[in-house]
Amino acid sequence: MMKNKHSGCRGPQRRGFTLVELLVVIAIIGTLVGLLLPAVQAARESARLSQCGNNLKQIALGLHNYHDARKELPKAFTKSTPVDSTGGWNWILYTMPYMEFAEVFRVVAPQSRYTELTNAVASSVDPPIPFLICPSCMVPITGPRDYYRTAWGFPNMSSSKTNYVGNGGTVKQYGGSGPDLSFGTIRKGKGIKFSDVTDGLSKTVLVGEVGGPAAAGVDSRILPGLWLESYRGDDMILPTLRYGAEKLNAGVSTAFGSSHKAGGNFAMCDGSVRFLSDQINFVGGALAANTLDVSNAGNVSWARSQIALPSYGVYQKLMTRSDGNALGDEF
Predict the structure, then answer these.
(1) Percent of the chain that is helix, strand, coil (3-state, to 5)
(2) What is the extent of the structural domain holding 296?
(3) Structural domain contains residue 18
(4) Which entry of 156, 239, 298, 302 is 20 to 30 Å from 174 by CA?
C-alpha cells in the first residue's frame, strides 16, 4: 500500500496574541497617547495665544489709525443725550471704521441710543466679531449681554461679547461731575493724545484681555466685555474698560484677566503686544479696596494723593500714563 506523500507533514502553525501580550500592547499605546496628549493640548493653546495676540495687534493698529485721523484716542463712551446716561456707545464702535468694519459703524452710529435700536440693527450686532474674541475664552458669545439683561436690568443690550477692553487706569471711579482720576489711556470725558503718555508708549497699557476664571461668588459671564454699549455713563464703564486696582486674573468684573495659563495678553500704546504674568509685581493698597465717587471732593483729594505712589507695583505703573513713575529695567 502506498503512503500518502503528504501524510505526516505539518504546515507552519499560526499562533495569536495571548491575552497578556494584548494587554501589554494596549498599555504601551495608552502610555504613548498620555505622553502625546499634553503636547497636543499645549500646541493648540499656543496657537490660541498667538491668535489672541494678533487680535490685540489689530485693535491697537485700529486705535493708532483713529489717532492719526482724529489726533486723539477715542473716549471711553458717548452718552446718547445730556440727560440720559444709560444709552451710549463705547469706544470700540467708534474705532470700527479704522479696523475695516466701517459697515458696522455706518449701520449703528445713526441710532440715538441702544435702548432704541431697531430689531434689524440689533440683529446686525448680535453675531460675534472674530477679532474681538479670544479663542481660549469659554464664556458663551452672548454671556455678558445676557447677564446685563437679567442681573442688572438692561433688557436692550444687543451686542455680542468682546475679550478686549480699554485701560481705565488705577482708579475704579464713578460720579459724572467729578474729574477723571484714572491716568488710564481710554478715559471718560475726552480722548487723550499719545503725547499725554509721558511714562512711555512701550510701558503703558492701551488695551488688555478680559475673561478667565471667576472668583468665588462672581458670575463668569460678567468678566468679558461688550463691544457696542456703555451703560450708565457716569458710573464705571464695565462693558468696555477695566482697571489696574486689582491683580491680573483676580476674577472680578473690574479686573483684567484671561483664559490663558498664568497670565494674559496686553497691547501697549506703541502697538506692541506683551504677555503679562499674573505673578507680575502688584502692591495692594487703599485704591484697590475702594470704588470712588469722584463727585465727592474729599474723595478726589484723597485719591490724587494715592494715584502716583512710587510704592505701587509694576502692574499698576503699567496702567498709568503719566504718574511720573516710569518703569525702567524691571519691565
Answers:
(1) 35, 15, 50
(2) 38-318
(3) no
(4) 156
The structural domain count of the chain equals 1
Amino acid present at 44: R
Instruction: Name, in order, each residue with C-beta under 8 angstroms of 235's C-beta and a sequence gap of 6 or more.
Output: 174
Give CA–CA dist 122/120, Å, rounded. Answer: 5
The answer to the question of residue 16 being in a domain is no
Inside any domain, residue 11: no
Average pLDDT score over residue span 144-172: 83
Of the candidates 133, 117, 108, the one whose C-alpha atom is nearest the C-alpha of residue 51 is 133
Is residue 329 a part of any domain in this protein? Answer: no
Is the pLDDT score of 179 beyond 70? Answer: no
- Residue 81 contacts residue 113 (beta carbons within 8 Å): yes
Spatial neighbors of 90 by CB under 8 A, at least 6 apart, are: 76, 77, 226, 227, 228, 229, 230, 237, 239, 240
Residue 164 has pLDDT above 70, yes or no: yes
- Rounded to two decimals, the pTM is 0.82
pLDDT digits (tens, 9 = 90+) for 281-296: 988 755 554 555 555 5
If one counts every other C-beta atom within 10 angstroms of the C-beta of residue 3, the result is 7
